[in-house]
## 1
Amino acid sequence: MKNIVVFDEVKEVDLKPSGLLRKYVELTKEDLKKFFLKEKKLEECLCPACHSNRQAKAFARFGLEYQECLSCHSLFISPRPDDAALNEFYVKAPSRIFWREELSRVTKQKRDEKIIKPRFQWILESAQEYFPGAQDFADVNTNQLGIIEEIAGAENFRRRTLINPFLKKEELNSIAIEVLEGPWWETPLKNEVDVMSLFEMIDRVAHPDGLLRKVGQILRPGGLVFMTAITASGFDVQVLWERAENLYPPDRLNIFTVEGLRTLFERHGFECLELSTPGVLDVDIVAKAFKDDPQIPLPRFVRYLLSQKDPQIKKAFQEFLQANRMSSYARILLRKK
Ligand SMILES: [Zn+2]
């Protein structure tokens, strides 16, 4: 199984401008009350990665609770809304509309350059390596225009499809691309796709098992799945835990560990061709949290690391995290057997 180490200069503030992000978080809190907390249609669940029933409360976030699996140590919200309720949230919630129409636009240029272009380079090169001649591409629930533009431009795929109930046709402007507007579990595609992309999708579905089962039905044998996810085994999440600002529902309903992800993929019979954690922000995120609040309890070693003046040390530490799959941003390549 491959583990790729990359290094790129990227700053969290370019991707997440703090003023707009604060507004997005405030809107999300309000939306969670409206959409999920009032009617209390929430269901308890087992660990969605390894199905263990041994769990302990980790911390609460915006009225919902993260549990820690005591077997694979993934974090997951339980009780949780179902996928139909989540779908409605992603279509209608004002926080999501704000994200699509404002936040994602302000950061589009940096995201396109620093994240999306390298991501598509990875997809195109890996597809060439593992499935030469792949012709049919489908993406599930992408919400960034930059990704849609890349998919539309990937002309080596004969057919490019977006499975996506959130997009407004008029927002696609002149991008000629097939859109299946229903939710992913209703898509009629069967045994007819060579390559799929699921960007941070596994983080935000109520039933990852249902999603992977569906993906297995959509793909042809030998078909590839490209995924990205935030991991609970990553450095900044492990260090900050309940103080990690980027962990909140429903975007991060599941925060799997690397071990949890492996168990999940094995259960669904996928071959894992690559599992890398090419994140570049872990140390920066912890440094920022410490700068914002010097009182937060950090391990002595982490304080010492952050106090180092030579930027090369932090960079080398981040490279160590990547080399050992200990960054909190993961990219995964699976193959249907
Ligand atoms: Zn587990």
## 2
Amino acid sequence: MTQTATPVAAAPKATLNPEALDQLFRTARTAQAFEQVYVSDQQLHDLYNLLKFAPTAFNAQPARFVFVRSAQAKERLKPALSAGNVDKSLAASVTVIVAQDTRFFEHLPKQFPAYDAKPLFVGNAALAEATAFRNSSLQGAYLILAARSLGLDAGPQSGFDAELVNKSFFPSGRYKANFLINLGVAKKGAHYVRGPRLAFDDVAEVL
Ligand SMILES: Cc1cc2nc3c(=O)[nH]c(=O)nc-3n(C[C@H](O)[C@H](O)[C@H](O)COP(=O)(O)O)c2cc1C
């Protein structure tokens, strides 16, 4: 929209209270060690039932989530983890494998009723791959914020061998691991020194 000469700031819907903004963003930290607590099936359903509403291109929802919670499943995951990620992933209540469905577009006729978007992706592997990666990454990020909003701590990780995870958890080849997210309750103070964030002027411009 073109700005008028004397712009009037948009009147937003109610802003979340400062405590909620702290919990989601300002004081939330990436967990590096976890308390031994159980995260229930109900909590995992609650998590998904929030994150599923956040937007994806064409409402395609390419992410798939494997909630690795049992000791046996953690043992399957362990060989794929980078050395520095082993202890915290085994300690976390759940390690989520965020994967992408390489054939997400098969769901489009139902998931995106506005018009037929499936033909855009059939036979265009590069577009399908980019769309699956971009939107499953977004959905993983939504999961982190949903977890924080439900009072859980999260620890995303890209330090793992995706090929090993794919072999062990997705042998059909249809799904590909994107990244991992540890979930649970962080041990008090179990995080690295807070790294500074780049300032608005360092990263943004308003044209
Ligand atoms: C996609 C992604 C991958 C990450 N991979 C790892 C990892 O493999 N191991 C690790 O210890 N931390 C990993 N991190 C954690 C980041 O280093 C951490 O979120 C960042 O430094 C911000 O920390 P803070 O939330 O405590 O401020 C990853 C974070 C993201 C979002």
## 3
Amino acid sequence: MSEASSPAAQFARDGFVYIPQLLSPAEMDELSANLERVVREVVPTLSKAEAMFEDYSDPTSLKQIAHLDAHDPYFADLMRNPRIVAIAEELLQDRVVAQNIGYFRKPPGRGKPTPAHQDGYYFCLLPNEALTIWIAFDDVDEENGALYYVAGSHLKGVQPHGASHVLGFSQGLTGDKSSELGQEVLCRVRRGDCLIHHSLTIHAAGGNMSSRERRAIGLVFYASRAKVDPELKRQYKESLSRQQQQLGVA
Ligand SMILES: O=C(O)CCC(=O)C(=O)O
């Protein structure tokens, strides 16, 4: 592979990179079995803010789990997987600090879109150097909630965000500046593929009105050189807790 097309070069240029079949079918089967176990056994013990539903009266409408790694040792171990950590270190050109794993599901027929955002707005880092490794459990395309990235937007800094009032994604980009900041790229993936995005890369996802599943996990790593800015974090948390109260999940 030439330097220009190496994953690190693509990540530096576009702010995201696609790695097909990061996990083998056997690894995905193991991951799926553990996810199903967590959904069955752990989710019922979690708070409304930790396990989020499109409709809290319907257990089949699970849409998100925050901090999977904090709730289950299998997922805590996954964050230490040497192959995954090595990829994160290569792309961020630094040692990394594992943060958390989120589960992102768009239930068939009713999964809502993900608002355009930069993860870095939530992370509040200086410098804002982190990434998310997003691993698909299902084939995903524009009908069941594919991710879109704005290529190159990670080079333009943190953009203004405001309260989105979307459960699980409290902050969204204000205004429609995405076209000024780079070209939007739709990323279709297969089960076992992964997409890795920089913390400043603008991304969004469609809803899922199809009859197919759309499940993914996102593993977040911060570069060692990135430090949380306490004042930015305080403002973010205030907005989050105001919205959680309005949405009745506090
Ligand atoms: O899966 C999604 O819809 C959104 C995921 C996301 O925003 C992320 O992993 O940073």
## 4
Amino acid sequence: MDNFETLRIVDNFYQTSAFFPMPTVLVSTVSPSGMTNLGSYSLCFPYYIAGKDYYAMILECRNSSNTCQNILRTKKCALNFIPDDKRYFREAVRLGFPGDTTEEKMKDCIFDLSESDLGADRPKIVDVSFQVFECTWNDSLENAFEDKPGNLEGYPAPFRNFNGITSTFGAHFVLKIDRILMKKKYSDAIINGVRAAAFPKVPVDYGYRDSTNFWMSRFRRPFPEQIQAKEGDVKSVIYAAKRIDPEVTFTDEACGKLTKIPRVFLKAALTKMVEIAKSEGISVIDEAALQIINDKRREEKKNRK
Ligand SMILES: Cc1cc2nc3c(=O)[nH]c(=O)nc-3n(C[C@H](O)[C@H](O)[C@H](O)COP(=O)(O)O)c2cc1C
């Protein structure tokens, strides 16, 4: 403990009392006049990542911002992840100055925008982004559909816990991801195998800021660190496999191929395999059947795109 100091936890602690790595996202929304508005945001993270019937991001924002007011009204936004470039970051800081109207801030905006083909009600997307998440606010959580635009001087209580207007000046949005768009170079890498050279130039917002500056770090080529797989022993796979479903059995050879699955995921993985085996009319999972099951899982993943 002697080598740590204690800091006070105050409003905006992630900026005032910490160094907190965050993304740089331009949130595009549609203004009342139908123009696309760009606001800069870093408090934007994956929220529902599995186990729900949709995937979601969370966005934390000032509730008097154009972005918040537009999401309350239209429910739609796009999260544009911009690459590391000093010019882009300077522009993001300009677009992040509170109080400018959409017309004022977008007049001289350096970013080219493209129409979304998801519908005329969607905001445009930023061309230079390496990836874009097109989203719809889930206003059904916590009955947040009751929250309306207006109240630019601050919202009155009561407040919601995690979706909609959450404090006098704050809002949180659970954003259902409708689509992930990515530049071809990077989506190819994800599908065909990522190498260090195929990473987009992702900048890091350092969190900490003072009254004069935001701080960013430049992109540096990433390096890989191999996952230290603990190979389980085949006996524990055989033991677990026997207990999934009496109608589907695994051969010992097939179990031998599954020893790299971490123990905590083993039951779920075997259950999924049995489910696919049954749908394919397979009652004995041997090495050939494993191949079929794996192909099927890959196919399912692709179809979810
Ligand atoms: C890099 C950067 C990150 C920011 N992140 C956030 C954020 O996560 N939440 C927030 O409320 N404001 C954030 N801001 C400030 C907003 O950009 C600012 O409130 C701006 O007025 C929003 O634009 P809008 O009114 O067009 O939505 C950030 C600003 C910058 C420059």
